[in-house]
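User: Here's a chain of 265 residues. Predict its fold as tokens.
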Amino acid sequence: MYRFLLSRRWAIITLIALLLIPAMIRLGFWQLHRHEARVARNELIASSLTAPPVAFDSLSPAPGFAVPTGLTWRTVTASGHYDPAHEFVVRGRTEPGGSSIGYFVVTPLQLADGHGEVLVNRGWVESGADATSYPPVPAPPAGEVTVTGRMRADETTASSGIRDRGGLPDRQYKLINSHQQAEASGASVLGGYLELVSTRPDPGTGPEPLAEPDHSDIGPHMAYAVQWWLFCALVPVGLVVLARREAKDNAEQARTAAEPELVEA
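Assistant: Prediction complete.
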């Protein structure tokens, strides 16, 4: 009744099923690892944002310092005077909570203790009249200020997926990178940058502030992992169902072919 399982067609079907099972198991674990990474990222952001503020230069002690993942999003403070002469904008950035494309405004802050400069991402502004014009940017507050924000690592093409390119208009860049700005200005720029949350004294107006990162959404990865493993479990079940159906069809065809012979007899 099940001799058809020895056929070439069923050998191919069985081989495909045997290949699908480990592939689906692996895809399930891939999604599980993505889920675990997302949960770990959310926990890191939550703990960093709620940690007591510390001085920026206590975490990034020198130019060229590479901010490690464990310090990213840490609440930091810095005091000093803004350096509007070396302010720049970063092209192709999305409006906070929206979809409009504009610019991030980054202004160096000269630290009051003379330790160097800190790049401060003051927020988002709309694009200018055309792609080559410097956009209208609210001036940074004059005098000494104390800023509080989130610690961020230097952006690179590898980390951001943004292709850095030259030939841009004056004071316009694609990435926020302390190495790049140190070369451009000749200043001692500490590694990483500060994503502004608040300023003391309050300047009143400024670029649109950036919202803190979402650290509550765990994404669909766990659901996808479960789906892949369910699909894996269904493969042998499907083989059994398919084999039984074919056996039933073969038996029905044999019975139908035998009926005329019985009538003639």
